[in-house]
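Here we describe the complex-level prediction in full. Unlike the single-chain runs in Section 2.1, the two entities below were treated as one system.
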Amino acid sequence: MAIYDLDGLLDKYSDEFLILEFNHLFISSSIREEVWLLQRRNDSPLIDKIVQAARDFSIQEVSDERDFETYSGGQKAILACLLTLALIDDRKIHGLNILLNNVLDSVSEENRSKLVQKFEEIRLTHNIRLFAEKDGHIQEILIGNGNPQR
Amino acid sequence: MEIRKGKYRLDNRNLHFDMVDDLNFNNSGGCFYFRGGNGFGKTSFLEKIIIPALRADNRPYLYIGQDIRTQLYTLRALLSIQGFKVSDTDEVELLRLWIHQGQSASVLILDEFDKYFPDYGFIFDWSADFIRTYIIVTHLGVNRRESVADNYRIYNVRFELIDIDGHLKNIRVRSE
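The structure predicted for the assembly as a whole is:
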């Protein structure tokens, strides 16, 4: 499987996983629009939660209206993860398998640890499992100490 | 070509760089690894400072950006126009053909290529005969010394956040 072959990725794994893919992180152009499409309403508390979380990752310039294309690649990957985490919490989703494709590799070592820690927090409360592709195979990312281990 | 130490401002991207070392691309055989946090301007520095300098210096370059999927569509179209039958060609072969076509280039830039191909030594194998300088943006902790020909000298270029003034980020760029 080519790692950026979206059709192949969806054919093979979309029944089983929620897929976050680096080259297709969003369907709209801003946090506000993305939340509107996902929640079907202007959910200000959820937006505030995402914006605040982004600032913890030193994305000081974040705002609900800012175009995703003006963020760096790594910042977009972080925002997509924070959006997903916020939504899982808000909708009280349990038992989800998340496949990160080229996402954790797009962020710095420090931010990677922080992101994985965020996933760890929600894994405990929402029974979330995290996976990534390696050498053509899907492997679970074992978390627990803040560092991803495959 | 040389990027001299000093202040560089990208106001429309809210980035101010303080380069504390010269970056000298004139010496053959350099492999520059750009490292730093997310949003610290590594790609902006490439696209707004280094690439314009390469153009001004008439130094042909090859650039594989972060959005490789879009670039591969373009490569497929470009190579088709040039007469290659690439409708069923896989992405690695597309890249090989493209790099083979680019032998006038002396600089090869890879922006987080290693997240798609963690073992990307093949890029060096294909290009070492004509590329004199590699510029590689990476978040991986280890230089791929085993992939680089022995005669390439490694430079680590660090992008470090000095402070944030409103939305403006002051970034120190240093070479080691």
